[in-house]
């Protein structure tokens, strides 16, 4: 069965998480670059600093700090199930 990777960016100070779906899991460098883009777009102050990586059962959680704000990036592999009702 096909899988899809869901990447969720939760940043303190932003009201809603940013979610991106992809066929491939991003590298840590790609996550870092995306966080820099988000930081610039939302005019977040402070330095972007990687803190730690936690892995468990196919899920990865990257923890960063942007200034005093905490940022969590979740990378999850999900089963891709497509089901269509037949049209008569």
Can you summarize this structure?
The protein has 88 residues and is an alpha+beta fold. The protein has one helix spanning 28-41; strands at 3-11, 18-22, 48-56, 59-66, 69-79.
Please describe the biggest sheet, giving its number of strands, its sense, and whether it closes into a barrel: 5 strands, antiparallel
Low-confidence blocks of residues: none
The helix tally amounts to 1
Tell me which oligomeric state these chains represent.
single chain
What is the overall shape? elongated
Distance between the termini: 27 Å
Number of domains: 1
Cross-sheet strand order for the largest sheet: 2-1-5-4-3
For the residues shown, what is the average pLDDT?
90
Number of E-state strands: 5
Radius of gyration from the CA trace? 15 Å
Order of SSEs? EEHEEE
Structural class: alpha+beta
Determine the strand fraction and express it as a percent band.
over 45%
How much helix is in the residues? 10-25%
């Amino acid at each position: 069965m096909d899988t899809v990777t869901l990447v969720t960016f939760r940043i303190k100070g932003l009201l809603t998480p940013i979610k991106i779906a992809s066929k491939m899991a991003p590298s840590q460098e790609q996550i870092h670059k995306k966080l820099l883009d988000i930081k610039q777009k939302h005019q977040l102050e402070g330095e972007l600093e990687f803190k730690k990586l936690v892995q468990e059962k196919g899920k990865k959680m990257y923890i960063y700090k942007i200034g005093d704000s905490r940022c969590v990036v979740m990378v999850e592999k999900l089963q891709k199930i497509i089901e269509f009702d037949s049209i008569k």
